[in-house]
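#struct-pred
JK: can someone run the complex with fe (iii) ion? inputs below
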Amino acid sequence: MRFAKLLVLVAVLGVACRSDTTLSSPSAGASAAASAVPATAATAAPAAAGTATAITLDCVASAAPLVELTEGPYYKAGPPQRTSLMQSGLAGTPLTLTGAVVTRSCRPLANAKLDFWQADGNGNYDNSGYTLRGWQLTDAQGQYRLETVIPGLYPGRTEHIHVKVTPAGGQTYTTQLFFPGVAQNTSDSIYSGAMLVKLDRSTNPIAATFLFVVNLP
Ligand code: FE
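RT: done, structure tokens with the ligand placed:
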């Protein structure tokens, strides 16, 4: 079976990613120490040495596509294009979300549109402006990076980030991302365990990763 891994290095100043079928170490989970970064990956991002947290995103050729979930009532058309949703006075714990958009066969998709929206750390959406709303395109390696905050709870909902994923020229997949270890996950009827980010709370900002697999060959 064909098997490939995307190794994402999450660092304060940047992200380095590579697809490499020769990497043999198993997924280290969300909290791998920097010392566990394979030498091949470390050389790919020398500037990040000592500050990077390695999160391995396994991409298996038979990977199931992302689970589509309801848009909910708070999407607002026309958000700005930006990779950072941070602004002064924003409530919430800083979070950097990184990853990639790939097909079922792990083919990275450049110029895929990711349109994110979410509540602030107090569970409030900005329905009059565009706070915590923004879209971006994946880079040539299919990667994305979002600077934001961990969303808060609001009635009936666990912590979640909404996103619309649109491959170039393709259909839009609407879904939500969730966070591991949140008690309210089990009582949220929309929650999907397939849409859990990998999380490393040891970094500042907290680092999350998610690999969006779209239903393309
Ligand atoms: Fe919501």
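RT: quick notes.
Residues 61-213 form a domain with the Protocatechuate 3,4-Dioxygenase, subunit A fold (CATH 2.60.130.10).
The longest helix spans residues 39-44.
JK: thanks, will look after standup
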